[in-house]
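Troubleshooting log. The previous run stalled partway through. Resubmitting the same three chains, unchanged.
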Amino acid sequence: MEFAGSHMLSVDQLERGDVERIFAVADRLEPYARRRRRTRVLEGAILGAMFFEPSTRTRVSFGSAFNLLGGEVRETTGFEQSAIAKGESLYDTARVLSGYSDVIAMRHPTAGAVAEFAAASRVPVINGGDGSNEHPSQALLDLYTIGRELAGRGRSIDRLRIAMVGDLRYGRTVHSLCKLLCLFDRVQVVLVSPSELRMPEAIVEDLRAAGHEVVESDALEASIAHVDIVYSTRIQEERFQSQAEADLYRGRFRLNQSIYTRHCEPNTVIMHPLPRDSRDNARELDDDLNDNPNLAIFRQTDNGLTVRMALFALILDVVDQVEEHATTVNWYVGGRTS
Amino acid sequence: MEFAGSHMLSVDQLERGDVERIFAVADRLEPYARRRRRTRVLEGAILGAMFFEPSTRTRVSFGSAFNLLGGEVRETTGFEQSAIAKGESLYDTARVLSGYSDVIAMRHPTAGAVAEFAAASRVPVINGGDGSNEHPSQALLDLYTIGRELAGRGRSIDRLRIAMVGDLRYGRTVHSLCKLLCLFDRVQVVLVSPSELRMPEAIVEDLRAAGHEVVESDALEASIAHVDIVYSTRIQEERFQSQAEADLYRGRFRLNQSIYTRHCEPNTVIMHPLPRDSRDNARELDDDLNDNPNLAIFRQTDNGLTVRMALFALILDVVDQVEEHATTVNWYVGGRTS
Amino acid sequence: MEFAGSHMLSVDQLERGDVERIFAVADRLEPYARRRRRTRVLEGAILGAMFFEPSTRTRVSFGSAFNLLGGEVRETTGFEQSAIAKGESLYDTARVLSGYSDVIAMRHPTAGAVAEFAAASRVPVINGGDGSNEHPSQALLDLYTIGRELAGRGRSIDRLRIAMVGDLRYGRTVHSLCKLLCLFDRVQVVLVSPSELRMPEAIVEDLRAAGHEVVESDALEASIAHVDIVYSTRIQEERFQSQAEADLYRGRFRLNQSIYTRHCEPNTVIMHPLPRDSRDNARELDDDLNDNPNLAIFRQTDNGLTVRMALFALILDVVDQVEEHATTVNWYVGGRTS
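Second attempt completed without errors. Output:
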């Protein structure tokens, strides 16, 4: 796709070359994200972070990514606006708000609302999550993380072996990640879920149509024995008919250091879209994994910053100007690396 | 008036020369608002956007206007502050908050609160709306839009023919606009409203005292036949004694493309302070007007950015420094023009 | 202490030399805080203002302080984040959010939460208030104000005579201030409170162990006769068993101009952590003190800006670079001095 001036609404817009282009730009921007350098390439540009549903981490991640390129951020954090309550159309909201910024990152509780907004917007719009539908920058940061983790292990996204664990039915994260995996070659996917929460058949068919090997299971330990990545997701209690059933599955899909050591190959990477639950008996990933260097969950959020910088740089067409606006960082950054 | 260091609380502060000065500065700043150029003239300055009542679009418009001049924005979006709940006076709030910024844009639900705040503030304050009272930057952007739309048609604010339609009793927008029109010559004003919602007599008298011609009516179609501008406003259901009466008037004041074509002169400009209602049977301006090039409602909000930039530049006394801090825009701005 | 890269969680971290270092840096930064100069020393740096409890003035003060050094601010204003509601640990929140900024200022309703967050953070954290526990930048700005006010009177923090008035039991402000006073010499402290709201015994003992003279009283007028500073605090009604008792004490501890003139030495300084109550019969400091030049309450909040700038400059290790990134202020600042 041509990135300059385009919306980024869905992973369906992307071909393999587009994904590789985004990742190549992210690699170039990594020194800026990690504070080894800084750039003012977007000085004077304005991001409208229009979050019509609260999401501190995604909102701050988009905003910080824009700041790291030198730009300013104007934002909103919820349906605070009486105008919307008064029955204004998304068309009008988009026409007005798109006059105030150079690019918009938008979250909305309703599936399809971001695309409807984008159709009326006069500036490019990045979907920051629209209900159960899409959250493309999350899928991209997940795949970017997979690529980087595997590169350090002499492997690649092609021929990836990945187990996805948990609620595969409602999790938009794993759906979008599967769509992106269809752009690559010979992936082995193990889908581990309660039977009520299996991956939608259409996505399984897409994976197989892409030539990938798909296995479905409801048992964690055997499923994670021969994979490069364990991608864990939250299982929400309310998905089950009874508390007893919910407790049964939670216990069965909980990963801790002991299970990891006994069942996984050495250096198997652990991922999660976050937040993970920290309440007793509701954990997907135990705290005793926090010292495991293969726990990549915070490298994922760090990579989110880099990937979002790449999207902004591509969409606003400043990739080749980043270095000429670069200077060194002159303040304390000692403890920053993750 | 002397703008440097002054508050902007009410259109009553302004003489004709002041309005023309603001508009001349807005014209000079337009290339910066539209991204043909950028300037860093206020780099390091801080706007305090103190919105004690939510209003996404006005808050973001002020903030973006300040960013477009190179400044930073600190803001609040509601009565989040326990201090106010604890009974702090506006005097104290103003003394404290005015120490944190170089200029303040403030919205407050109570009429007169912004003036009370400004009296204690140590920096200039711009009224961003205080209840039913004033919203001077809205009146200025409306008049600025009228001037620009008419200039393209070989006409001017002097000798303007305008129809104001809807709730003329409670709408602070039309009240302030009438006050500004009193500064100009030989305006013809047609006031179209339900009898319960007529323009306050004092304002009608002001218009007549200024030498303007005023006609009152409760019929839309005849009233818009010979005007340059149709300025439509929202009629709120709760203003009427019965739903039946509300429905009657809503239907009667609704403008759509068919009525426009049959009754208006060619190129009659359509304006609205927004938001317009998008619910069936509650529309003031139908969606089928969206393709009408004379629908100026989004040019109004765009002009709001420019007018607010002009107010900041005048009050902070940097008008003559804008160009020397200017550079070119180096990112994608393709689809931005409205 | 070594400031570069350190957290600032509690006044207990500070020795006398540390306090003097902070104040010396604040003195150097004062021209920038007061708009006589500006600096871009932190251009490109990002502050994460993570306020998980609303506090407009503290949040804006931290944000403006960072802007005044040239940096950007990303922030949140409450528990808007569904992630926390879903049971995420502070450890995870800290790991994620600390990847998005160079330094964090955090407020949290729970005592100890900021320290727990800081332990997992990858960047320095400044405590902006954690429940009843600590608010070190408030204590520092109070002591800095005392030092500046006294310097103009030929006196100093050593040998200070101070009356603390009001709720001394629950007020974290006076507790932290007492801890800092223990670092200085021969202070005379008069503690004026209802018997139910006396200063905790441990703090009184600390003051005496530091060689200070402590007198406790429940009568205002005699207690303020021979002091340099009257530090007044709010008494909350709900602390008392009956309304009658609350009214009794409120009346007894209320300071106004008449009492000041009759009982205080000339030029006795009046301080208060703010907000002060403006409701009739609930005032600690009457409005008729507003014209008294010894009322230092707004100089306190102004000094808060300067002290927070100093903390940022020390923690991010840019103190010696401030001047080389300095320029002159080019906009209107006429009425700014307090």
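Takeaways: The radius of gyration of chain C is 20 Å. Chain C has a mean pLDDT of 93.
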